[in-house]
Amino acid sequence: MLDIREELKKLPAKPGVYLMHDKEDAIIYVGKAVSLRNRVRQYFRPSHNEGIKKDQMVKQIVRFEYIVTDSELEALILECNLIKEHRPKYNTMLRDDKSYPYIRVTLGEDFPRVLFCRQVKKDKSRYFGPYTSGGAVKDTIDLLQKLYRLRTCNRVLPRDTGLERPCLNYHIHQCLGPCQGYVTREEYRSQIDGVLSFLNGNYGPIMQELEKKMLECSENMEFERAIEYRELLSSVKQISQKQKITNSDGEDRDIIAVAHDDRDAVVQVFFVRDGQLIGRDHFHVSIANEDTRAQIISAFVKQFYAGTPFIPREIMVQEEIEDAPVLEQWLGKRRGQRVYIRVPKKGSREKLVELAAKNAQLTLSQDKEKIKREEGRTIGAMKEIAGWLRLEGLSRIEAYDISNTNGFETVGSMIVYEKGKPQRSDYRKFKLKTITGPDDYASMYEVLTRRFSHGLKEQEELKERQMDNAYGSFTRFPDLIMMDGGKGQVNVALKVLAELGLEIPVCGMVKDDNHRTRGLYFQNVEIPIDRGSEGFALITRIQDEAHRFAIEYHRFLRSKEQVHSVLDDIPGVGPARRKALMKGFSSLEEIKAASLEELAALPGMNRNAARSVCEFFHKQQGQS
Q: What pTM was computed for the model?
């Protein structure tokens, strides 16, 4: 066993990051230090007290490791990255993982589009945001497309000009028709300039133009068009009124305030862009009893700005935070310009921080009950199930289901719930390889054998590569397996586990005559369950989800097989053209209804092949 006292003597008096490990070799805490020697030694001094949370952590430390850096700034960056990657148990953690919507203007295209996106990329596009409401962003994009008659299609212009007929938007006067060459690049670009001006908050010119057109149409007795302009004008006015001016300096800034009790904290963020308050959002943070407000704000700033693409010029907070100078350096590097972290003492800025704090306190009190209800639905429900089965430490459940139609394309589904919530990234689909008829037991045997054999193989490979803390797609095994059935399905699972030398609890979800779950079959006994409990509701959700996932995959394979088999019979359509048809159209009916020009425009197709497709389906229709 590692002698911690000896290791402490080897610590350098240099800046860096330290990682604390428990007996399972999991990373339970990550911290940064100006001097690794001084900071890490503090944890192991009997007289040193950092609160109950840190004391509990120190008792679990079996070993530590450290990474030396050239500066405190480098240590801060590394600390942020490691916390984000490992999510250590004893770090103050940001629980929300939100991505904000942006408006993207694709200036790299000859005929740009205005799009909704959630990621800012280093391309030639211009991005506006972040905004806090996805619905408001979509409404704004719809309005811009109507105002400036922009294209919404994915055609590559001018390469595809004239290849297809203009879409419906052109015919209803909501697109200028660049796909047909009806507008020059310069004329279209002037419309885009108007969009950019609008998104920068310059609403005056477009409002004047709309009012002028509305009056002209009214004088010419074109009342329907006048109403259209009036509605557009009303929409623009509504958007302009939502922008509350907070300061005339036109700066970008975030205002951050926190409210907390002994267990929970809520951080409120106001977003000010170009001097306008564009929205607000709140984040729940897990804390320890002794965490101060300044410590919570510091931890939040590190994690929030490590994951967001936009860094404002100024961040206003409630009170001074200890590592503000090094945080300013780090944020400035990410922004490419200097960033200021300030504590306003008077005036409108101080009142904005107070307003954010009041909102944080309100959200904290309102969400307490909501959080308790959610925990009852998830963690509380898992505890109920564990109590019924007399299991300890129930965190991960896997459930399986089989779907087929008279043995056709039999498929299996594996769904995963962790702490009472679906872990969709761990869901898996199985297309049966050895079973040809409708045999659910044999199908389940194959699915479970493949799943756990693959998992054992991955574990062995990672062990050989000395990557004990890494995970493959099947590496993690469940604390409980739930089978969609009773004794028969449970025995199949137990047989697979015994053959592979695994010990994992297995229970069956037993149904009544009306196909509703009535109890759990576990260790040769049917255990009745309270149908009004959260545990029962969770079991029902798991059962429905496993069934839905299997049925969805089965339907996909059947649809794909039907389209595949019909297209195989068309003369002149080989694998490449078949793939192009299936990619270009979402169903067989769409392929049948497509025109010769639409078919010929697909990659790899030509007029002869397109004519062959049309004639094939025309002949089929005549025979029917």
A: 0.48
